[in-house]
Amino acid sequence: MSSLIQVVINGILLGSMYGIAAVGLSLIFGTMRIIFIAQGTMIVLFAYLVYWASIKAGVDPYLSLLWVVPFAFILGLGLFYVLFRKAAALEDRNVSLLLAVGLMYLIDNLILKLWSATPRGLDIPYSDAMIVVSGIRVSWLRLALLGLGLGSALVVYLFLKRTRVGTAVRAASEDMEATTIQGINSVWVCAISFAIGIAMAGVAGVGMATVYSFDYQFGFVFAIKALVALALGGIGNVFGALAGGLILGIIENLAAYYVGIEWIEVASYGIFMLVLIFLPQGLFGRRGLVKKV
């Protein structure tokens, strides 16, 4: 039983990263209706920036949150107005998707030129710190990553529920046309949602830099895992997206423990397909998102 508890706990901690990325994807898709496939690459970019700040300036990765999140938000605004503003207004979402793919490969190659293909990872003084309770071992860094996920999801939830801007974002995710008729600037709403989504990538980048070894190719794989987490949790629910990431982490750890590491991808993508077929709105998504035909 203790082994099972350890596997589940490790899965929850692993899934924190997926959850943070899924929350950002949920915001972007909810308003712009595009699958921002470059989200994983943005996370890797911020992880490299945190790595660089730690190596060159000795900045603690978690203190980097103080500059990474504002920088990511501003960068998100810039990317939206330069690349996605006109595409977001088009009925054909394939244009935005292709822009996201182009951005992904552009950043991948930029990372390759700046930092080479050598995998990077931070050796933090407290990286080996453990919390041991009844024989269950929990890494402090992974526990901190879970705290980042819960904290960032809570901030986004409060923003959406307690602020006027958040109310506009929620209204736009329900019906952009009706929101525009009510006098709300749809471009501005999309820009804010996109910027917050990129800010969440900045948070995830901090977590990646502290826990993972990463390279320039890690972004695409991570973006797909975030999409799986989003499908599990469901669009339109911030904590649902986070929960989807935690569930995915548990599934992967259980598969690795009971079947074998080589079955991790089979399990995660198999669950992904089953959810899309039998529960397309996700476990916690709004039921109204799926129409009967």
3D structure, described in words:
The chain has 293 residues and is mostly helical. The chain has one domain (2-278): ABC transporter involved in vitamin B12 uptake, BtuC. 73% of the residues lie in helices and 3% in strands. It is built from eleven helices and two strands; from the N terminus they run H-H-H-H-E-E-H-H-H-H-H-H-H. The protein has a two-stranded antiparallel sheet with strand order 1-2. Helix 2 (39-57) runs parallel beside helix 4, helix 9 (218-233) crosses helix 10 (238-258) and helix 9 (218-233) packs across helix 11.
Helix content: over 70%
CATH A-level architecture: Orthogonal Bundle
Record the strand order, biggest sheet: 1-2
At the third CATH level, what is the topology name? ABC transporter involved in vitamin B12 uptake, BtuC
Number of strands: 2
Overall average pLDDT: 88
Oligomer: single chain
Helical segment count: 11
Shape: globular
Biggest sheet details:
2 strands, antiparallel
Query: Any idea of the CATH class?
Result: Mainly Alpha
Question: Which class do the helix and strand fractions yield?
Answer: mainly alpha
* Total individual domains: 1
SSE order, one letter for each helix or strand: HHHHEEHHHHHHH
User: What portion of the residues fall into strands of 2 or more residues?
Assistant: under 5%
Uncertain segments of ≥5 residues (pLDDT<50)?
Answer: 288-293
What is the radius of gyration computed over CA atoms, rounded to a whole number of angstroms? Answer: 19 Å
What is the first-to-last residue Cα distance? 45 Å
